Amino acid sequence: MKSQQELEMLDVGKGSQRFNSNTRKVSAVARNAGMGWHQSKLLHRIISYFNIKQTLELGTSVGLGSLAMAANLPNNQVDTVEACPNTSKFAKRYFEHNNLSHIQVYTCNFQSFLSQLPKDKTYDLIYLDGHHQKEATLQYFEQLKSHTHDNSLIILDDIYWSRGMQDAWQIICHDDKVKVSIDLYFWGIVFFKPELSKQDFKVRCLF
User: Fold this and answer.
1) How would you classify the pairing of strands 187-191 and 153-157?
2) Are strands 6-8 and 23-25 parallel, antiparallel or unpaired?
3) How far is 98 from 190, CA to CA, in rounded Å?
4) Which phi and psi angles does 78 have, rounded to 5°?
5) Which helix (H) or strand (E) holds 77?
6) E strand or H helix at 64, and its extent?
7) How deeply is 170 buried, as exposed, middle or buried, from its count of CB atoms within 10 A (0-12, 13-18, 19+)?
8) Which of 24, 89, 135, 189 is deepest in the core (most CB within 10 A)?
């Protein structure tokens, strides 16, 4: 939040609703596009509560989400993917400075990462934060399902970012494999556990 360093950022998805230039201060990105304090605490608690050991994050940015997934959670291996080389480089230095050796950063676009992911690789939690387009979100979700197990959960960021994202969220909620969905407005969370009854919840957080 204090950094005045400027990064030339590469937007491979829908782009930013908050910035007009690709040259952005790290502090501005953290403040306007990064994960907020309350969301960070909630994500940290989710990982702790469900005893998450393997996490995939698609969309590292400057690393606030990764930090929430890894800080004081040494048993959670975090794989995080960032397409922008400059942002990825900054995040790597940030993690190294905070001794977060259990975060592995991959500098590539989401599709390249997923195409090279071993078919038998599964994650306990997948956090999808990027692209923000209906078709791309649905494509990633379809691919990511094969890398989940019965107890996995997927968190989708910014489900109300646009009409297309709202449509994508509704389609995902009605996916045959999804048993429970939770709409938190800023996130959508889906569970796959087969023994659960099909339910959809909307929760409005007071923060």
Assistant:
1) antiparallel
2) antiparallel
3) 31
4) -110, 120
5) strand 77-82
6) helix 64-70
7) middle
8) 24
**Checking DSSP bridges between strand 187-191 and strand 180-183, what pairing results, if any?**
antiparallel
Structure tokens at 149: 């197990």
Tell me the C-alpha distance between 138 and 140, whole Å: 5
Taking CA 13 as the corner, what is the angle to CA 169 and CA 84, rounded to the nearest 5 degrees? 130
Nearest to 148 by CA among 190, 105, 104, 199: 190
Residue bearing tokens 């094969």? 146
24 with 54: CB under 8 angstroms? no
CA–CA separation, 50 vs 56, rounded Å? 15
Residue 26 to residue 9: CA distance in whole angstroms: 10
Write the pLDDT tens digit of every residue in 22-80.
Answer: 787 777 766 766 688 899 999 999 999 999 999 999 999 888 999 999 999 999 999 99
- CA–CA gap between residue 91 and residue 89 (Å, rounded): 5
Q: How far apart (Å, rounded) are the C-alpha atoms in residues 44 and 66?
A: 10
- What is the residue type of 55? T
How would you classify the pairing of strands 187-191 and 199-202?
unpaired
State the pTM of this model: 0.88
Residue indicated by tokens 């800080």 = 71
Tally Cβ neighbours within 10 Å of residue 169.
Answer: 24
Asked if 60 and 80 touch (Cβ cutoff 8 Å), the reply is yes
